[in-house]
Amino acid sequence: xCRLWLVSLLLLAPFIASSQPAELRxxxxxxxxxxxxxxxxxxxxxxxGQEVVVRGFMAPPxxxxxxxxxxxxxxxxxxxxCDSDADWPTDIIVVLPEGEVEFRPNTDPVEIQGILNVGxxxxxTSGFYCRVWMTEAExxxxx
Length: 143
Fold this sequence. Notes:
Blueprint: H1 2-12, E1 22-23, E2 30-34, E3 37-40, H2 42-47, E4 51-58, E5 69-72, E6 92-97, E7 109-122, E8 129-141
Parallel strand pairs: 1-4, 6-8
Antiparallel strand pairs: 2-3, 4-5, 4-7, 5-6, 7-8
């Protein structure tokens, strides 16, 4: 009987949901671009609505009392709205944290864990538009 239980468990193991959130890298977000702009990857779409972990850098806040921040794959020195010549990356994630977040220098790597959302979103207090965002987000500094 015990052997049958063990065999059943081993056969079902691939189908048992992991309690660990999936990791998402910025280079996995898009598959290319077309006439309508960047095209979401199948990996990004498969993780939509799920808890994920993403590592990156906090972009400088749009304003001091911001309730969200932008996560980028590489450090960004300038707010693109403050300098019209600034090069704003296309692979960004807007992060809506659970509570207050201490903004970190743009050189400190951070890890964000939260619910991934894919599709157009306009942040209501600023009008900031994004295509990928995270809610219920927790921030961990990696340095």
